[in-house]
Amino acid sequence: MSFAERLTACAARIGARLGAAVTGDDPVHHAMRHAVSGGKRLRGFLVMEGARLNGLDDADAVTAAAAIEALHAYSLVHDDLPAMDDDDLRRGQPTVHVKWDDATAILAGDALQTLAFELLSRADCHPDPAVRVALVAGLARAAGAQGMVLGQARDIAAEAARAPLDLAAITDLQAGKTGALIEWSGGAGATLAGADPAPLTAYARALGLAFQIADDLLDVEGDAAATGKAVGKDAAAGKATFVSLLGVDGARARAGALVAQACDALAPYGSRAEILRDCARFVIDRKA
Amino acid sequence: MSFAERLTACAARIGARLGAAVTGDDPVHHAMRHAVSGGKRLRGFLVMEGARLNGLDDADAVTAAAAIEALHAYSLVHDDLPAMDDDDLRRGQPTVHVKWDDATAILAGDALQTLAFELLSRADCHPDPAVRVALVAGLARAAGAQGMVLGQARDIAAEAARAPLDLAAITDLQAGKTGALIEWSGGAGATLAGADPAPLTAYARALGLAFQIADDLLDVEGDAAATGKAVGKDAAAGKATFVSLLGVDGARARAGALVAQACDALAPYGSRAEILRDCARFVIDRKA
Fold first, then answer.
1. CB B10 within 8 Å of CB B45
2. Which of A65, A69, A68 shows the shortest CA–CA distance to A37?
3. CA A93 to CA A82: how far, in whole Å?
4. CB contact under 8 A, A28 and B122
5. What is its EC number (chains A, B) (predicted)?
6. Which of A261, B4, B21, B263 is most solvent-facing, going by the fewest CB within 10 Å?
């Protein structure tokens, strides 16, 4: 199976799991389903592929994969709000606050975060409560005020202050804003299997930074039709990015070096990790 | 020790635990600390008193008590946002979005929810991972789109539609909006102790509804200086409440019956539960 086939297969399973998890017919339920539909489901794929590499079936990993996608979706719904990044378009669709309203978007995001922890705490996530609680603890550390939320808060503050950050500050910010969830996703499959998560965590750490640099490149070079979201926003906002600090060629070279580093971290898995190596190459070559 | 002394002692311990849990010097951290300061900490008290009745020391219950207070604080910060209830005053202090801004309030609330699950997943919450994960699962069910968030969404929808609800719909709505967290708090202490949570859960279910009826009465009869928040908002919004549906006397009688029901549920604990009985009476007699 190629990386593209595997990514598609994982996305379909995760979508079905999320569909079963979000029940109800209130507007907030419809908004939650809208928020978790579409997308590459890269984080969930990392969970499932890490689990497969350590001997688990997809059914053993899909609940944890759905959890991280629910958490990621919550962060997007809140980031898109007018008070935050103010985006109307996400994955080619109107954002939740545009299709419903701000209150529904706040509540749907809130409930998606709760859902992530609910899914991880369920017996069908893993039979051993100690494994489930370790996943909860790790995700909470990654998502909270020392991780993703802190990165997002600093990103907004830097933009509001119109005080562009330097490379060290941006690297630190992105390690929280996008890196922490990707890193958790990398290690979660091994944790589910009772294996050492260190190699896959190291892979995912490099992958996450490469992913963000590629995102900055897409904001400069991409087009809205392909990415399904607005482009050119960073430059218009006078925001420092990896591209504004390193230049297009420098950013591309840095992303390439990180992909090589990510692939090297997979050495313990030998040729069996080829799909993850392809994933790393895809992350910096993607057009969306 | 009287109920009032016990409530004060629990609040102090919970405040210290939360203070230790929210570190950092970014605006989002200051906003989180602001949001968890003050308040009666009734939910955390229920956790600690339920634990004490089942033989645990306060130190064994304070982390779970801090978790529910973090979750409750998140819900208040988001409810107070302009897109939701639009409140400027909370516990006699400016709300988070007034003191900082909407983005910081959204993020601080988000991180407080995460913190609740992080605290429950920590080894210092309980040595047994199975107990910790049961608390996570229960809190997630209580807080999510089938519990608190659903109640809040329906409350806002009813107000926006200017279509007052009937008594059954309001009772159902409040069971989610405020009841679910109070019910979880009632049972959590027994769960920590490995005891049957049923009597304390039944107590807390009746208490939660009495609490909400008392809140509606305060909105009619209270004053802003004593309650530390705006009053008269429900009537101004043409909102159906227990008071608009039952009248002041009817609502007061219903709250009294619920307090009697709550006290009856404590029978297995005999006279040792006198503090919780006083708590139930306090809930409907309070002026704030």
1. yes
2. A69
3. 16
4. no
5. 2.5.1.29
6. B4
Q: Report the alpha-carbon distance of residue A110 to residue A75 in Å, rounded.
A: 9
When CB atoms are compared, the residue of B22, B78, B101 closest to A110 is B78
Distances in Å between the alpha carbon of A82 and those of A86, A156, A266, B107?
A: 4, 12, 40, 13
Query: What is the reported pLDDT for A37?
Result: 94
Beta strands per DSSP E along chain B: 89-90, 93-94
For residue A79, the Cα-to-chain-centroid distance in whole angstroms is 13
Q: ipTM for the complex? A: 0.95
Identify the CATH number of the domain defined by range A3-285: 1.10.600.10
Q: Which residue among A27, A121, A143 places its CB closest to the CB of B133?
A: A121
- Give how far A202 is from chain B: nearest CA, Å: 23
Higher-confidence position of A38 and B80: B80
Distances (CA, A) of A62 to A108, A120, A142, A211, B140: 22, 10, 20, 23, 19
What's the pLDDT tens digit per position in B217-265?
Answer: 998 887 666 666 666 777 667 778 899 999 999 999 999 999 999 999 9
Q: CA–CA distance from B193 to each of B52, B127, B131 (Å)?
A: 9, 11, 9
With CA atoms as reference, the chain B residue closest to A82 would be B103
Q: Do B157 and A27 touch (CB under 8 A)?
A: yes
Interface contact B103-A28, CB threshold 8 A = no
Q: What is the pLDDT of residues B108-127, one digit of tens each?
A: 999 999 999 999 999 999 99
Token pair recorded at residue B225: 């200086």
How many contacts (CB atoms, under 8 Å) link A and B? 151
The model's pLDDT over B168-215, given as tens digits with 9 standing for 90+, comes to 999 999 999 999 999 999 999 999 999 999 999 999 999 999 999 999
Are the C-beta atoms of A71 and A113 separated by less than 8 Å?
yes
- Ranges in chain A, pLDDT < 50: none
What is the spatial distance between Cα B95 and Cα B98, in angstroms, rounded to a whole number?
5
